[in-house]
Amino acid sequence: MILLVQVVGALFGFLAVLFGAMGAHALKKTLSQDQLRSFETGVKYQMYHGILLLILGFNLGFNTGLETYMAYSFMLGTLLFSFSIYGLCLSEARGRKWRFLGPVTPLGGLLLLAGWALLFYSFIAHIV
Question: Whole-prediction pTM value?
Answer without folding.
Answer: 0.95
